[in-house]
Specification:
alpha+beta, 4 helices, globular, binds methionine sulfoxide, about 30% strand
Length: about 160
């Protein structure tokens, strides 16, 4: 079963010690706080980035045939603030209506480069009434950074976010 208290793992990195469950508890609080949508997506990006191997976190919204960057947290801004749904790993996640985990971006022809240091990427669609309305995009500077816990964890965040966006 997914949810707070279910992810266990504690990680230590440059950003200090953090566990998925601590991050999950803070996310759950803000997601259900009744705050404005932009305040919530900004917080979600900042909070997710506390996980050591999450280098850059963004939330894109589907807007017609494009994805538009709404919130992000990371060492630098991306030039890809609008991505056609036919492009990149971000576009593919919407087209396929599925999470896409890329262990090595240099081997994926769909990859659209934002940052020179990105080695792995995880893109999780956010659904409302079965349709993808947004997505969480996470870049990591570590190759093979994302495992099954990351997929389950970020999918749980996306499921929690869907109804309030
Ligand atoms: N790498 C993404 C583009 C977005 S940046 O990572 C922020 C892609 O392939 O769609």
């Amino acid at each position: 079963m997914k949810g707070v208290g279910k992810f266990g793992e504690v990680m230590a990195g440059e950003k200090g010690k953090v566990s998925y469950d601590e991050v999950a508890a803070r996310l759950q609080k803000i997601i259900h706080s009744g705050s404005q949508r932009k305040a919530i997506t900004d917080f979600v990006c900042r909070e997710l980035r506390k996980i050591p191997h999450y280098t850059w976190v963004g939330i894109y919204f589907v807007d017609g045939s494009e994805l538009v960057l709404a919130s992000w947290s990371g060492p630098m801004a991306t030039q890809h603030t609008r991505i056609p749904i036919g492009g990149g790993i971000c576009g593919a996640a919407v087209t396929e209506k599925a999470t896409i985990l890329v262990p090595d971006v240099s081997l994926d022809p769909r990859y659209l480069q934002c940052f020179i240091n990105t080695r792995a990427e995880l893109v999780v669609p956010i659904f409302r009434d079965g349709a993808p309305i947004a997505e969480i995009d996470i870049d990591s500077d570590q190759a093979n950074a994302f495992g099954p816990t990351d997929k389950d964890f970020v999918e749980w965040v996306a499921e929690d976010l869907g109804p309030i966006l």
